[in-house]
UniProtKB/TrEMBL annotation:
GO terms for molecular function: carboxypeptidase activity; transmembrane transporter activity. Coiled coil: none annotated. The chain crosses the membrane at residues 33-55, 868-889, 909-931, 1012-1036, 1066-1085, 1097-1118, 1124-1149, 1156-1176, 1196-1216. This is Major facilitator superfamily (MFS) profile domain-containing protein. The keyword Membrane applies. It is found in: Membrane. Keywords: Membrane, Transmembrane, Transmembrane helix. It is a multi-pass membrane protein. Belongs to the peptidase M28 family. M28B subfamily.
Length: 1256
């Protein structure tokens, strides 16, 4: 720098009293303009890219797998042209599925499966064979799923009729418990054929009198009790039929009986009996007298699956429960009607006759054999010895699972059939279905060879252990429940593909239309008129879902729409030997399905139903059928309430109204979905790509709603007394087991005369959310806000003494630690304690504002600086929920990645907080190494973190400095970023400033009149803005009210109408507004505030807010075309007010501070009062909203909100924009240098004066 030499200066009248040399203007960076332009362009691109990334994650449902499948740049037509499959048009796919199935192949598969015994847990060879075949068919992703199941196998048994005579006992008859060996049926002579036994029957050896109990239903036993027939201590003889066999044993056990014998009475065979002249199998179609029906006696309507692992999968090492909650504790045996004859005849003449008990008891089919159907008990000297020895073990069983991944990986169709059988055969149950499933898979394999890839993912399942109690399917569903709940669209089950000629479907109502459609595409095997389809000869009746097959876990536990169908025995068909050795390949080929055409018909129906659900872009569900079904089911159960005890009444009106509303919504939704399908068939030009994207979004939303319908009827606490069953519309009848019961919880409560117990069930039926969850979630948020409000001022004050940086770093550390504790909370107390500690220990919000104010004191730069923080928080509010939702319950949602982690199973919400901790660590590390202290009195304090950070980056910075310097005109090197604009001449002896003790400011110094005014306005604006956000979604979702001819409406003041907008659309509105807010905050806020001033922008926002709130409820009265635009207008208007009001008030508060020494405390107070406002505002307005709509006035909460917001205008009028806090402490720290400069100036003045005097 050039030095000033006074002795060489010529003195004149124009000679300055003090000469200051200005450093020469440095050369501008040669590419300064380019750098500035690039910064603007790249910043704008970054904002746009962020928006494009956030839209899919925030607008669309989070249940789907990958966020990228929603991105606007993704191909919205994964099949190139919906609804045709990729590589194979849909009509050609149908032809492949119709033409591929082969009767010869079905016969081949049936012959293999029925060649030997394949009990549950004893058919690994068949599982491996099935796996191999499926891979040959083209299903490469096929594997075994193994479970360790508790079940039984028979060891010994005996059933003998005894005659007592004093001390002696004579065996008058002993049953063989064997079926006759038939030369015509090789299966009956297999050496390893399965003995007659009951699954899950108890071991025992009992000798007792016995009683005939008809079918063994609950009512049958009640009839016996009412007739004073002795049951306790006796053995029950009951017929198969009417209800699940396990429930017969259950009721007998409850009444104190000691054993049960179950036989097949020809009564169940209709006209095809020996009594009516038909020969018995193998010579004719009638039942073989020695046929024995095996089966499970598990209490199927209480709990299916492994009885030791209710609700969770039976994996090795898992915890086991007492099995006797769902399996019998008394022995039972099955027997043929041939061998029950001596036992029943021994009752002749003892006790009343069955015919005396009413019509239900009549019709026994053994009268021609000499059975009089007396009830008994048997004489005291006539008893039965029932001996049953079972081996209970925990053994593996094997499901075969094949997967074909579709374009939409998170929409899944499951097709299943069970493989195991009670016998060596099983040609009807289950292996007609197994043969059909193989042909379905082979057909789809042929389609894939032709280039087809499914739109949705397909899962094929060959279940094991179904016969014992739906074991394989239940355990698989329990293990994969999180994935199924998210992705499973439908389950299609076929148990018995054919045992006759009568088509018998049962389905959830959502799938009714699928059945009607596919039955019209397949030719019927029993045509009376050439060309008839299955639909033409079918009655059209679809039964409700109950239990008894593998759909149970899907429908009743997971809430997955399911169907089950097959061809059952018609009135004139040969008798089907269910669960008997005679359900054999020989019977099937001679009587069941001679030409294997019913096997092929089932195959075609099954494949076409799957294809319909797989390939249609909008899922082929029908919500209207569901709503109509709910109404018809309710009509059928209403008479139950008529039998309530006197003085009791149940009001169905609420449920009736809910069903009517559901029906209207369903019709609208189905029509909208149909319109989407129509649009998908229209050709959309490439330059309208955004229409394709929008259509994709709409299809996704429609499909998620369809999937969610069935799930909406799940009640997680479960039905009373059988909490495994979650569905409140469908469940097996508690005392029937097989047949479906509708509204089971309600019906069971009414049948028990318990009206009070029915009311909570009703609340669940109409979809009212569980209040406790909402209440405690609100409390957790409230305690965090109150805690933060409590400690914000102390943290801010402390930062004025120890510095900003230590408080920010410590706040991050504590927030990280307590967030981890929150994620590992195992009870409500831990959750609340964690939230309280997070609030208490985190004082960063106010201190960050303080640091920004200290870094950017220039008023012209404040709008840009203070606009960044709200934008960052907006991004966090959008990404935060998506981030947390994606990582919560990882072991359930992503079992392939996290399923093996016991820690994540124990703490399902830990992962989001642990991952957040990684971000915290990055932030803490960055702060320690690179964040500079901004508090003036601590700015020059030695900071080892900064020293370390400088050392780490010094290699980079030194290189940068070397290349970025240039010379001034005197040849001196100066760095562009570091060279001062004014040259400074400091004495060589100038030393580093030393901080002086800071005097604690008084409260009057902190709270100036202007600060108080800004605080009041800031609190009102933030709190009431939050109140708007808390009730505006409720207002949008509130049902639309009929305004004309409604006595409850008196316009323009009395009405309660909302918009009836669904939550998904509301979320879309808020996401769009959030994105618009970010753009406004970043691009428009700074220039507008610079142009018009901070105070003026704040006043305009404060005045506009009450006007917006005043007009909000009136938008519900707008004409239909203007309703949605008016909603968006209100939302954007409120958004504009908040976008300007909050940062402007923050700037005004900062500039109202009397000194930088009080900024920390002042911003802490602002944080506290705003937190209290955010807690109190929503609570107050939410309460008034509820009260107002109850009174019929939607205006009340909104106009109260408008009035309260208007109060923020009053202090805003008195606010004066200040110049900002003084830098007095910093100035004092430079006091010595300034004094020295003043002395130098004085000397100069003196010299000049002397010179002037001498000239005079």
């Amino acid at each position: 720098m050039r030095e000033m030499r006074e002795k060489d200066m010529p003195y004149s009248e124009t000679t300055p009293l003090l000469e200051v040399h200005v450093a020469p203007r440095r050369q501008r960076y040669p590419h300064h303009v380019l750098r500035h332009t690039c910064t603007i362009v790249l910043g704008s691109l970054l904002v746009v890219a962020t928006i494009l990334f956030m839209i899919p994650g925030a607008i669309l449902p989070r249940e789907h797998g990958s966020i990228w499948s929603y991105a606007p740049w993704a191909n919205p037509y994964p099949h190139k042209a919906w609804p045709q499959g990729f590589g194979l048009p849909y009509d050609q796919l149908q032809q492949v599925l119709l033409n591929t199935p082969s009767a010869a192949k079905a016969r081949e598969w049936s012959e293999y499966y029925t060649a030997g015994p394949h009990l549950g847990g004893k058919n690994l060879s068949q599982a491996l064979w099935t796996l191999k075949k499926w891979k040959e068919f083209g299903i490469e992703d096929t594997s075994l799923a193994s479970y360790d199941i508790y079940l039984n196998y028979p060891q010994e048994h005996r059933l003998a009729l005894l005659k007592k005579s004093g001390e002696n006992t004579e065996v008058t008859f002993e049953a063989t418990l064997e079926e006759d060996v038939l030369e015509e049926d090789p299966t009956s002579s297999l050496p390893d054929r399965v003995p007659a036994f009951h699954g899950y029957s108890a071991s025992g050896n009992v000798t007792a009198q016995y009683v005939y109990a008809n079918f063994g239903s609950y009512q049958d036993f009640e009839d016996l009790v009412n007739a004073n027939v002795t049951l306790k201590g006796n053995i029950a003889i009951v017929k198969y039929g009417g209800l699940f066999r396990g429930l017969k044993v259950k009721r007998a056990q409850e009444l104190g009986m000691v054993g049960v014998i179950i036989y097949s009475d020809p009564q169940e065979d209709g006209e095809i009996t020996e009594e009516n002249g038909y020969e018995a199998y193998p010579n004719g179609p009638a039942r073989n007298p020695s046929a024995i029906q095996r089966g499970s006696t598990q209490f199927l309507s209480i709990l299916p699956g492994d009885p030791t692992t209710p609700g969770y999968a039976s994996k090795p090492g898992c915890e086991r429960q007492d099995p006797y909650n769902s399996i019998p504790a008394i022995p039972s045996l099955p027997i043929s009607y041939k061998e029950v004859l001596p036992i029943l005849k021994a009752l002749n003449g003892h006790g009343p006759k069955a015919s005396e008990f009413g019509e239900w008891w009549q019709g026994g089919g053994l009268s021609h054999k000499g059975v009089e159907y007396n009830i008994g008990p048997s004489p005291k000297d006539v008893v039965i010895n029932l001996y049953n020895q079972q081996e209970y073990v925990t053994t593996p069983l094997w499901d075969v699972i094949g997967v074909v991944k579709g374009h939409i990986a998170d929409e899944v169709i499951v097709l299943g059939n069970h493989r195991d059988a009670w016998i060596a055969g099983g040609a009807g149950d289950p292996n007609s279905g197994s043969a059909a499933l193989n042909e379905v898979i082979r057909s789809f394999g042929e389609a894939m060879k032709a280039g087809w890839k499914p739109l949705r993912t397909i899962v094929f399942a060959s279940w094991d252990g179904e016969e014992y109690g739906l074991l394989g399917s239940t355990e698989w569903v329990e293990e994969n429940l999180p994935w199924l709940s998210k992705a499973n669209v439908a389950y299609l089950n076929v148990d018995v593909a054919t045992a006759g000629t009568s088509f018998e479907p049962r389905a959830a109502p959502l799938l009714n239309q699928v059945i009607y459609e596919v039955t019209g595409l397949v030719q019927s095997p029993n045509q009376t008129v050439p060309g008839q389809t299955v639909r033409d000869v079918w009655s059209g009746q679809i039964a409700t879902m109950g239990s008894g097959s593998d759909f149970t876990a899907f429908q009743d536990f997971a809430g997955v729409a399911s169907l089950d169908f097959g061809f059952g025995r018609g009135a004139n068909d040969p008798v089907y030997h269910y669960h008997s050795n005679y359900d054999s390949f020989a019977w099937m080929e001679k009587y069941g399905d001679k030409n294997w055409e019913y096997h092929i018909t089932t195959t075609k129906l099954w494949a076409l139903a799957a294809a319909r659900l797989i390939e249609t872009p909008v899922i082929s569900f029908n919500a209207t059928d569901y709503a109509l079904g709910l109404g018809s089911y309710l009509t059928k159960i209403k008479p139950t309430a008529d039998r309530l005890p006197e003085g009791h009444h149940f009001d169905f009106s609420g449920l009736d109204l809910s069903i009517v509303e559901f029906l209207e919504a369903a019709k609208t939704f189905d029509a909208w979905s149909a319109d989407l399908n129509t649009k998908l068939g229209e050709k959309i030009p490439w330059y309208h790509w955004w229409k394709k994207v929008r259509l994709l979004f709409q299809v996704r939303i429609a499909n998620d709603k369809y999937k969610g319908i069935e799930r909406a009827f799940l009640y997680q606490p479960g039905l009373d007394g059988r909490d495994w069953f979650k569905h409140v519309v469908f469940a097996p009848g508690i005392w029937t087991g097989y047949s479906g019961a509708t509204y089971p919880g309600l019906v069971e409560s009414l049948e028990a005369g318990d009206v009070e117990n029915a009311k909570p069930e009703l609340i669940e039926y109409v979809g009212v959310p569980k209040p406790e969850v909402a209440k405690w979630s609100g409390i957790a948020s409230a305690v965090a806000s109150v805690s933060q409000a409590t400690m914000a001022v102390p943290w801010g004050t402390l930062s004025d003494y120890v510095g900003r940086k230590p408080i920010i770093i410590s706040g991050q550390i504590f927030t990280m630690l307590f967030s981890i504790v929150l994620g590992m909370s195992s009870n409500l107390s831990m959750v609340l304690a964690s939230r309280i500690l997070i609030g208490l220990m985190n004082g960063n919000v106010g201190i960050i504002r303080t640091m920004v104010a200290e870094i950017v004191p220039e008023r012209e730069l404040q709008p840009r600086a203070f606009s960044i923080m709200p934008m960052v928080w907006t991004i966090g509010s959008i990404f935060g929920p998506a981030f947390g939702g994606a990582l919560a319950r990882p072991a359930e949602k992503h079992p392939n990645l996290f399923g093996g982690s016991e820690f994540l199973k124990k703490y399902p919400f830990a992962l989001p907080n642990l991952v957040s901790a990684c971000f915290f660590i990055v932030g803490i590390t960055t702060g320690v190494l690179f964040l500079r202290e901004t508090l003036s009195t601590k700015r020059d304090r030695y900071d080892p973190g900064l020293v370390l950070g400088q050392a780490l980056i010094s290699p980079c910075t030194s290189s940068r400095k070397h290349h970025s310097t240039f010379k001034d005109e005197d040849g001196e090197d100066e760095d562009e970023e570091q060279a001062p604009l004014l040259s400074e001449n400091r004495p060589a002896s100038s030393k580093k400033r030393e901080s002086k003790p800071v005097v604690r400011p008084s409260w009057s110094h902190i709270f100036t009149p202007q600060s108080i005014l800004v605080l009041i306005s800031y609190t009102l604006v933030s709190g009431l803005g939050m109140a708007f956000d808390s009730i505006f979604p409720v207002f949008l979702h509130w049902p639309v009210q009929e305004l004309e001819n409604n006595p409850e409406v008196n316009l323009p003041f009395k009405f309660t109408s909302g918009f009836g907008i669904d939550a998904q659309t509301i979320g879309l509105f808020y996401t769009i507004s959030g994105i618009a807010g970010m753009i406004t905050q970043f691009l428009f806020f700074p220039p507008i505030v610079r142009r018009f001033g901070v105070l003026r922008c704040f006043r305009v926002s404060a005045i506009a807010m009450p006007i917006v709130f005043f007009l909000t409820p009136l938008t519900a009265l707008a004409p239909e075309p203007l309703r949605i635009p008016s909603v968006l207008l209100i939302l954007f208007a409120k958004l504009g007010c908040i976008v300007f009001a909050i940062p402007c008030s923050t700037i005004l508060l900062t500039n109202s501070a009397s000194s930088v020494t009080v900024l920390g405390t002042l911003n802490g107070v602002a944080t506290s009062v705003s937190a209290l406002g955010r807690a109190a505002g929503p609570a107050l307005i939410g309460t008034v909203f509820s009260w107002g709509v109850q009174k019929g006035y939607m205006l009340i909460p909104w106009w109260l909100l408008s009035l309260l917001t208007l109060t923020s205008v009053i202090p805003a009028i008195w606010i004066v924009e200040q110049d900002g806090p003084s830098r007095e402490v910093e100035d004092e720290s430079e006091e010595d240098e300034e004094v020295q400069n003043e002395n130098t100036s004085a000397s100069t003045y003196g010299a000049v004066d002397v010179s002037r005097d001498s000239r005079r």
